[in-house]
## 1
Amino acid sequence: MFKSFSHFLQSDLVYNFTRSRVAVGSAVVALLIIAASMLAPVLSPQNPFDLMSLDIMESNLPPAWESGGDPKFLLGTDDQGRDMLSATLYGLRISLIIGVLSVALSLLVGVTLGLVSGYLGGIVDTLIMRVADVQLSFPAILIALIVDGAFRILLDKEMHDRAAIYVIILAIAASGWVQYARTVRSCVLSEKGKEYVEAARIIGLGPVLIMVRHILPNVMGPVFVVATLHIAMAIIIEATLSFLGLGLPPTTPSLGTLIRTGNEYLFSGDWWITIFPGAALMIFSLSVNLFGDWLRDAMNPKLL
Amino acid sequence: MLKLILNRLAHSVVVMLAVALIAFSMVAFLGDPISNMVGQDTTVAERAALRENLGLNDPLPVQFVRFLSHAVQGDFGLSYSLRVPVSELFAERMPATLELSIISAIFALLIGIPLGIHTAINRDSFTTQAILSSSLVGVSLPTFLIGILLILIFGVMLRWLPTFGRGDVVMIGGWSTGLLTSSGLRSLVLPVATLTIFQLTLIIRLVRAEMMEVLRTDFIKFARARGIRRKALNYRHALKNTMMPVITVVGLQLGNIIAFSLITESVFQWPGMGLLFVQAIGNADIPVMVAYLMIIALIFVLINLIVDLLHFVLDPRLHSSGAN
């Protein structure tokens, strides 16, 4: 384990990474944001879930540096008197958790189906890829909306609110697996004919073992690239759903629900409720996209 | 040629059937249409009679065929929440969505394709770097955030432009248009800008990638070796070969614009199909959801079909291979 890690440190990838200012910069920003959101309970001045600490008299306060601002609330407060800094940090945390879990779920499903599809071929392959083709011709957001809509019909209002976070993860995962399946499948097709796979087959290993132990490690590179870019995408989809009022209930402050609340106060000039969560969302997805772009170029030397 | 067209048509029909099956299973398995149609005081016997009347006791394949034949005629039943035929709702709202989407698509293409070509030809120039970095910002900004920022700047701070609705519309035949009144045009600016910015970034990046791909091919190197002038090379030889994949992308983007307009419509309270759909999800209004799904699927399938056929018309290589 240790040896493979030091091996990794000496790889071209790490060398290229340290030489690219964009890659290092975006990775640092993304990691800082992740750290800040995970440490939200420690860092934030207030717990936005703790209704006792909220004072309605302190609602819609502007940021501290504006006139009428309160130094207690650096970035101002929202309509319930929640501190925007704390709410944004907690919101980031929920958005990130949803993003990571839904990416993990679609990765799991997509990679499995891609492996099976590419390795077995034939009717299984045709079936999986047909479904993928049909789904790919629709935008991810639409798929996620429809999955969410189906659960809204299935569950009653109260149950849906309680299960909202899982429904969203499922909806985003359902909209994202195709990318993984197609990437893995095309890699598997080119790996399948190679000698090491033939060798594994000759010594009598079963298909499952060959797929998981031998082919899978060799196709994970592109999967990581897809997953990195997908995280930004997943967080944007979550925010969009919540913004449309179809994601998390307002009691759970994700970035999208915060922006939605803020939107209602935009016309009275209370811009900070929307802008700070919006900026957090933008900076995070920008840094992840920059890093993902770099990773794609670095791992795929054919493309320039 | 005929074979190719038939093949594409068959593919489109299969996709539509698949979407119809999904839509039908939402109707058949999720929720109970009866309890959405009648009041609390309807007796069990009356409900059962209604159920029999509506054919809900028939075998599922029979119900599916009935659903299909109704859908083909544009009949999706009554909206649960608005108590109006779904087809009327969509007929009323379709012009708003189409105007918004098509105008945005035109702008995105008119700006995006030249910028994409520019960034592919002058790879290291300052403007290229500027365009590419701002396009990455565009990719990272969710559509709704672009809309909110535009509202904040042009609606709230500067008070230049209206931020919701379509303004005054004029009816021409059954089509309501906002293009003929000044308030209608002013209302279009911000939603169109929102949709355009979002699509623009994607189009720039795709055109650039395709163009660079073509510029690397042997025939371009050869043309350069022959001494053909740089300008003729870029615009006559390379661009011609770039347009093929670009048409594909543009077709897909047009579908995307129509779908993504639902976010823009929600931000600007634009009375289009997308807003209707978003409200329908919130109300668990199945007939409206189903109808939207089918309409969008139909638009996507039609666009794909047209793109495929355009390919065939424009690419001479396909003529010979299509024959055998």
Note: The radius of gyration of chain B is 24 Å.
## 2
Amino acid sequence: MNIHEYQAKGLLRAFGVAVPEGQLATTPEEAEQAAKALGTSVVVVKAQVHAGGRGKAGGVKVVKSPADAKKAASDILGMTLHTPQTPPEGKLVRKVYVEAGSDIADELYLAILFDRSAEEFAIVASTEGGMEIEEVAAETPEKILTVHVEPNVGLQEYQVRKLGFGLGLSNDGVRKLLPFVRGLFDLYIAKDCSQVEINPLVVTEQGELLALDGKINFDDNALYRHPDIAELRDRDEEDERERAANEIDLAYVGLDGNIGCMVNGAGLAMATLDMIHYCGGTPANFLDAGGGADTEKVKQAFKLILCDENVEAILVNIFGGIVRCDLIAEGVVAAAADLGIRVPLVVRLQGTMAEEGRKILAESGLDITPAETLQEAGELAVAAAKGGAA
Amino acid sequence: MAILCDKDTRLIVQGMGRMGRFHANLSREYGTQVVGGVAPGKGGSEIEGTPIFDTVADAVKKTGADASVIFVPPPAAADAILEAANAGIRLAVCITEGIPVLDMARAKSALADSEMRLIGPNCPGVVTPEQCRIGIMPAQITRPGPVGVVSRSGTLTYEAVDQLSRLGIGQSSCLGIGGDPVIGTNFIDALALFEADPDTRAVVMIGEIGGSAEEEAAEFVQSNMTKPVVAFVAGQNAPAGKRMGHAGAIIAGGKGRASDKIAALEAAGVAVAESPAMIGRTLVVAAPELAA
């Protein structure tokens, strides 16, 4: 799960990590008030959307008076932001964060994440703050410093010193980095984060360390023990269909093709997308109905797939292990009866109770194209979608 | 032979809820020795013919169990894994999906000094055809033979096994290692087991996007495997930044793409199936003597 910058800064502050003063605003008037309240000569008005690259896209403005803050907020609020990280349709800006300007002497990069290969936490730092870290890693890997933190040992001070001196900080800077990284690490562990990224981490003219931007992601599997974090979820930032799927416990990812997919199991669902591409088609979605797929869930899944107006054919690919194909078949029949499926339907059932399932479909009188193998399922679905388009 | 489990394996079930009971019964019907269940507070009772114990230690002492399958819900799953290790279990297979990364990172680190092998979590388990079923796989699609199957996915494992069986090629053991970021047994561990198993003559490895386990496996194949390995990598058309069902299946920061994994595997001499429908046929091409 992602949260907004202003929420991330609230968490950072709570864990003792220095961040600039700031206030959230949803109207230009609020932004003006916020700038007045901050009382600094420079304020920054920042679009709050779940995407990086806001500055280049015009979502961040540096201004010198409350009146200009109002003007900047009125420009940014309601705009659709297009950055490399936003979906193709862009992201509507609904709120801005008005923040005190900082005297920047130097910009650094600092992040904590989980290194899957090492199976340890990694703290990554670089002197190249404010840049895309992937680019820095690709072009100047020597400018990336990494220390690994063993999960049962936790952060040690020597690790922070190693980073601090490696970054070329002064003795005083290294001393200040200790509580800064300690706070970040405590936050990372206490709230089950999957990533905490401070880019840039600035050294001010006065030699203080400040988190100028903050991006925090959380481990979805751990949200059950962090109701405070779960509350930070901003439904407006999520894809409508992915959100609906999430609510009925289906894994769904919208894609831009025309063949709707319903599959059980994440691996087979990914492979089904690959199969469709291999056969010359394009999938409209990834959908893993999961191990608990039954009649009701199948119906819900169909509803979701049919919400997508681009869908011209649907491929159901079930390999029953825990899932029973007869229950899936009943779901398909029920969905067809209730929803009136308007597009060709190709169904492949294999594994547990597959015979029974195929029989249910054959006897339903519905216009369903059965498929035996994965290859055949892919070919039939692609042909059906092309037929629909003609 | 085979790997991990056989007809002598003595299995207990940790977490005797609906799923645990259901699959305990299926495993027993398949011929697996299911010798007990663990449900704290219910020790001394019986659930559907399975004797129940309060602790894993108790179950091990009284039944001689050497393997455990874990169906405990996510908040208590890491604890269940560590309890199994503490009780001297040799093989623990954790089916549970949704365990926080932090819990698994700590548990995995704590297991470093343990003798226990962990499979999973978030995995379908392991089947040695006609001998032993641990987990949730539909064992009826397997048949005994010379090919080891290892996969990060559940249903895609079934797909691969089904393709092999339809071509008349049986399996030594079929193993799902799980779709989470932290898993007990990775591709390299599984490949090493298959390499050492005299009954295995070739290996099918099914990877997916996310992480770098396939790249690491490719290196291992190149320097350590004498047996032919064929592979498929799912998610060749997955968009970046989206979690594709499995917690670990995500292309993040330009890393974990299927194309990189396929390139690494091919460079290591692994034949990679072009489409998921060609996994079986790719094996036949790589090891024609097995199809006879």
Note: The mean pLDDT of chain A is 91.
## 3
Amino acid sequence: MVSPMGAHHIPDPAAPRVNAWRVLLIGRRPAHTLVRTGILAALCFLVFRFVLIPVFVRGESMEPTFRDGGLNMANTLVYRLRDPLPGEVVVIEMATRRTMYLKRVLATPGDTVYFQQGALFVNGMRIEEPYVIQGGRWTTPPEQLGVDEYFVAGDNRSTPWEWHTMGVVNRSRIAGRILF
Amino acid sequence: MAYHGRGEQVTHRRENIILTHKVWRYGLVALAAIVAVTIYQMDRDTRRINKRLNQLAGTVEKTAGEGHLSTLAKSQQVVGYLTPDAVLRLHPVLPQQVTRRELSTVFYQVHSRVETLDFRIRDRRLEVDRPAGTANMRFTAIGTARWGARNESQIHEFHLRWVKQDREWYIDQAEIVQAIRPPRR
């Protein structure tokens, strides 16, 4: 270590020796470290509780985009600023935000949506879905979406649509958007 | 702290008069006791309802090896959690609206067919209205049934309305709420 005067610093032999491991773990001032740790813990709690919710994927309805057992994050702030858009993957809350559905938005309020032999039609136009690898032969009746209503479905269409949780969801249920 | 003189001891007493004064001390203890008793009283109904729900979930479940007698007993126990005129809207798991008797019959049939039935309550939200003797509960449950080589799992959101009758809580209304409504046929 070099002092501001340019000379080498000579440690004072009378000064108490500081344990390097202790300094590394709890710092030179344990009280300050404790406060900093507390603030960091509170910040982490707030962020991961209210802003970025960890999502543990269970089930196969979103395969192959999201595999069973995968871990992801949901951004809950994005839909406070704007509405969900078609193609976005969203989390839909149930009784609480601890258990949620993971689905893709296919149509937005005012749209008429239906499936014909596995192909998606929104307002009479066929929509290409590159994310669907395991396609099926879904044919559903046309659904006119009301105000605040969105049409959602999973990417895995290999099961009959009657067995697949898909359909109309209210805007208030959409809790956030999947990050990656 | 060590005392080195009479004057210093007096000064210390003046600084901590609030903590050392007997009246304050006993007052704080009494206040803590009142708060604890109030919380216990308020929480008693919540605990009881949660316990009833856990018992109901245990009754709904079926483990490998359970026989017909057990199924028959459970089908009777399930309706014991309901008021006599309970309203049950458990579509799509059950028909649109069922009575207690129909629920017991359907329960017996389902339990007889499946080998195992797992019923997990993931999270719950409960609001108790003590003066009215009612409580509203929302929870998400995952049911997994296995029979033969098949394994079917369903996740649903339940809304229950509990009422207190004769110092016990019973389900007065049970409803499955669909967060995602399938297309109308």
Note: Chain B has five helices and six strands.
## 4
Amino acid sequence: MDVRVVNVKKEFQRFAALHDVSLDIRSGELIALLGPSGSGKTTLLRLIAGLESPTQGSIYFGDEDASTKSVQERHIGFVFQHYALFRHMSVLENIAFGLRIRPRATRPNAAEIQRRVSELLDLVQLSGLQGRYPSQLSGGQRQRVALARALAIEPSVLLLDEPFGALDAKVRKELRGWLRELHDRTGHTTVFVTHDQEEALELADRVVVMSQGRIEQVGTPDEIYDTPNSPFVFGFIGESNAVAVSVNSGQLYLADRPIGLHADGAADGDATLFFRPHDVEIVTGPGPSIPGVVVGTRRHGGTRRIETEVGASGQRVEIDVSVDATIGSTGRLALRPRRWRLFPSVPLRG
Amino acid sequence: MTSIGLAGGWRIKQPSVIPGFGLALGFTLTYLSLIILLPLAGVVWRTASLGWSGFWAIALDERTVSALKTSFGTSLVAAAINVPFGVLVAWVLTRYRFPGRRILDAIVDLPFALPTAVAGIALTALYAPNGWIGGLLAPLGIKVAYTPLGIVIALIFIGLPFVVRTVQPVMEELSRESEEAAATLGANRWQTVRRVILPGLMPAILTGFALALARAVGEYGSVIFIAGNIPYVSEIAPLLIVIRLQEFNYAGATAVAAAMLIVSFAMLLAINLIQAWSRRRYGYGG
């Protein structure tokens, strides 16, 4: 089912958690809401669920205005970070809960419920554990039970609030791949909140980057990673270097020396140059470049990371080179970003 | 954690980083002996001097039996009434923020602090046929003071904080998320309360019930003022013990005490067993 968030504002007492947020979620999509804590991502998710009500604006499920509907009527599946399983109920009772509490007219009979539960247990790979209590399960198993419980009511939208946040790294990775598979198989419209960019980029069809109650950028993982549209997104997603430069008739200067980059149409004055550590070439011949002083090298996965200081004020820049490269042994190098973006000067963050 | 316990079999001493196991256990046993076991052993010892037949004669004496019935009957009723209302008070105190909440919270503890005789006199004044509330009830033919009903009211007063104070912390800890989860699954408020919240509170409620009951059984000060103390009707067992003492009938007093002890112990044991079962049932501990 399509979900449309239209001009939604949310205030808690005086504090504005969301400013005028609009978002279209297409049917069957897997969407990640990504942002640092306090960015409003969980609030947005809870608004869609109906666990909070917007101060202004509306939320549509399909063509229906869902804003006035209660949580119960919205028919959504919600998975909480800390599972929120009913600890006095067995796995079976937890999963069956949403079906058993239905009014008699719409409640499936006991055999049907049992069948559905075993089907879901198969789906979340927990067959045989239906008699266990939540306290007897591991974190990963609990979260899968929570997911099965949410799926049992055949929700129109599946909402997950930091679903893997409380799990250790290995289990998290496993569950990630498994959730993707599950989504491909069941095709639920799914929205999940995360502060883990790797998780968002790997899992989602589209990523919504949020900051301070606003949506910064919406796009596919490629778009978000390759063409961030704001300094915030550039700094938040992946690793990046930010160097303060100045622009003079389309030429970029660092400490009054041209660095060989042209930004047509950029306004003259101060600006910030963003580029990623692996999008840098080392300049060996003559020609304009950014000269740097090597202050350290570290092994970084499959590459070697060189830390340099550039410019008059010694701004830190990190670059990745191949492991067997001998660059940097002389203590000096010249570099030029291959892919980069220029943003009008802002105070550097993070 | 459970796996360690199972693998190692039954052990007195769990491996721990905190030393002093021997000292702590020794002190605990000595302390409990001095404070609880010795006085109780004295009761049993005194009673034993009566012999079996003597003990049964006193314990099954009609006045003793009716006093015991009054004591345990009113205590059970009072504790049972305290459960729903105590849970309600705890709910209001934990879930709502309103002006005067802290004051209300403090008021709950007053029955702990007030001399019970004061409470008894105040309640008697209220519920006597010429008191404010008693005066309203008298035309309806309801007599409160000087009847078992009056005893129940005094015991409700005494027992309320036990239920509130045992349930309150557990309720605060109860995750809001599981209520929200229930709502997203389509549960209405009543279903959420009955199927999600109450079962989670069950062990705490049972503890509160047991404490309120135990306290009520032993209550003396407030009850003797409001009860009227009519033998066979509204005379409680603790009062009967005092009466026997005043008659210098020490053996008779200890016999009644021993009978109370046996019944109390049996009841508390039963409640504890139910509680252990419910803790397991409701997934606390492992």
Note: Chain A touches chain B at residues 49, 51, 70-72, 75-78, 80, 82, 84-88, 97-98, 101-102, 133-136, 146, 149-150, 152-153 (CB under 8 Å).
